[in-house]
């Protein structure tokens, strides 16, 4: 056998799609590719249909090969369609994913390409064509209006409008537009309460911190929050302020909770990774096999029952090509099981009992492994937290100190009353 003899017909109806459920009637879609697809563009419909019938006949059982008939046919010639020049793309022997990117590359700023052949991740699919359309639309829009700058923060707080205006002004001096809000620089002097509560770094840093205000938390008057030696104090005496604004202390508490949650979440991720590395994944519950004697019987007698049901329908209808529906076969199979002799049901009942015993055995082993794993995991978590838990950051401690001082001030105030 010489492979070259099949070169021109290798792609001739090499695949059929069964579309019967979508159409509602027996329907097949035959595909051609390669040289066979090119040759089909010049062949009449009746020859192409006959080739499809012959290919479909080879898929049928020997008893029905001679009875395969085509009631209706539609022939498409995508190869010569002026808008497609082919149905969808095929990857060559030496092609790589980069070839899809090359096809997707626009020409200048005026010609953009879309289609499944330009989608590297989903070529040859409808959703690949859709994804490429979104990408081409984005490229087109960018060529018209430029890159879209994302403001920071994306959604400012209601009482943070002043901070947003400050950044907009700063942005206008940098890029010539007041519509873009740059990301504020990171500084050790920043605090959720504003820069005036930053770490004392020696010397006067107010000139620096005035341009680094938080965009999400409003500035708090220095006298509104209790202080300690970790913070700058506006009063000459250095004594704590006498008034506490509880609405602004809520901001402090909210910022503290956020930092604490982030730290704990990060620790949990690390602990989870180390747990899997040491103990492996948690045991998965085993799948239970179906324990039904009728289901086992059905596997053995389905084909025999289907053939008998088809013959009965052909005799009743007078149509030699009539086929019994799936539900009709099931109904006949159920009747066959009910009429099956009891002594012949014994092997199926015993097989069902064996399956149930095996399911119970697997379940017992799973529960035993699960108890052991959970016990070892609990011990591991306890040891891990003692040895590897992250200490609260300096920012957390500062915020805790503010809240502690505020609570102390409130208690002192109540005692004086």
Describe the structure.
The protein is mainly alpha-helical and 417 residues long. It folds into four domains: 3-80, no CATH class; 97-145; 149-219, no CATH class; 221-417, no CATH class. The chain is 52% helix and 2% strand. The protein starts with 14 loop residues before the first strand and ends with a helix. Residues 287-367 bind DNA. It comes from Sugiyamaella lignohabitans.
Summarize the structure.
The protein is mainly alpha-helical and 417 residues long. 52% of the residues lie in helices and 2% in strands.
Q: Characterize the overall form.
A: flat
CA-CA gap between termini: 107 Å
Give the helix/strand class.
mainly alpha
What are the secondary-structure elements, in order, as H or E?
EHEHHHHHHHHHHH
Mean pLDDT: 77
The overall strand count is 2
Number of structurally distinct domains:
4
Strand fraction band? under 5%
Secondary structure blueprint with pairings:
Elements: E1 15-18, H1 20-23, E2 28-31, H2 34-40, H3 45-59, H4 97-104, H5 126-145, H6 161-175, H7 206-209, H8 246-279, H9 293-317, H10 326-338, H11 342-388, H12 394-416
Helix pairs in contact: 8-11, 8-12, 9-10, 9-11
Question: Features of this protein?
Answer:
12 helices; single chain; 2 strands; 52% helix; mainly alpha; 4 domains; 417 residues; two-stranded antiparallel sheet
């Amino acid at each position: 056998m010489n492979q070259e003899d099949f070169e021109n017909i290798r792609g001739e109806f090499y695949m059929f799609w069964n579309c019967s459920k979508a159409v509602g009637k027996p329907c097949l879609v035959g595909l051609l590719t390669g040289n066979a697809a090119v040759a089909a563009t010049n062949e009449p419909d009746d020859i192409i249909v006959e080739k499809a019938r012959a290919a479909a006949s080879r898929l049928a059982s020997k008893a029905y090969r001679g009875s395969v008939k085509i009631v209706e046919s539609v022939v498409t010639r995508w190869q010569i369609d002026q808008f497609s020049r082919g149905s969808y793309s095929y990857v060559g022997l030496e092609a790589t994913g980069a070839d899809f990117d090359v096809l997707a590359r626009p020409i200048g700023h005026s010609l953009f390409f879309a289609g499944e052949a330009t989608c590297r991740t989903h070529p040859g699919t409808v959703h690949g064509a859709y994804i490429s359309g979104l990408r081409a639309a984005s490229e087109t829009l960018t060529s018209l209006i430029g890159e879209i700058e994302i403001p920071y923060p994306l959604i400012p707080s209601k009482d943070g409008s002043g901070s947003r205006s400050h950044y907009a002004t700063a942005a206008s001096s940098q890029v010539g537009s007041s519509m873009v809000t740059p990301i504020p620089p990171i500084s050790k002097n920043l605090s959720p309460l504003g820069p005036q509560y930053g770490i004392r770094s020696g010397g006067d840093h107010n000139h620096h911190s005035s341009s680094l205000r938080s965009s999400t938390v409003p500035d708090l008057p220095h006298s509104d929050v209790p202080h300690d030696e970790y913070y700058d104090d506006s009063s000459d005496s250095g004594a704590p302020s006498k008034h506490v604004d509880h609405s602004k202390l809520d901001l402090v508490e909210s910022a503290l909770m956020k930092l604490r949650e982030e730290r704990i979440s990060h620790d949990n991720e690390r602990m989870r990774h180390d747990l899997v590395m040491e103990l492996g994944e948690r045991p998965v519950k085993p799948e239970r096999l179906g324990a039904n004697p009728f289901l086992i019987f059905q596997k053995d007698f389905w084909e025999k029952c289907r053939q008998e049901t088809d013959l009965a329908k052909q005799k009743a209808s007078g149509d030699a090509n009539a086929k019994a529906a799936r539900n009709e076969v099931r109904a006949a199979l159920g009747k066959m099981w009910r009429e099956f002799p009891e002594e012949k049901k014994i092997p199926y009942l015993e097989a069902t009992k064996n399956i149930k015993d095996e399911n119970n055995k697997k379940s017992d082993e799973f529960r035993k492994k699960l108890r052991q794993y959970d016990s070892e995991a609990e011990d591991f978590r306890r040891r891990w937290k003692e040895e590897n838990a992250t200490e609260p950051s300096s920012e957390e401690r500062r915020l805790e100190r503010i809240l502690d001082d505020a609570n102390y001030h409130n208690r002192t105030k109540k005692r004086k009353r």
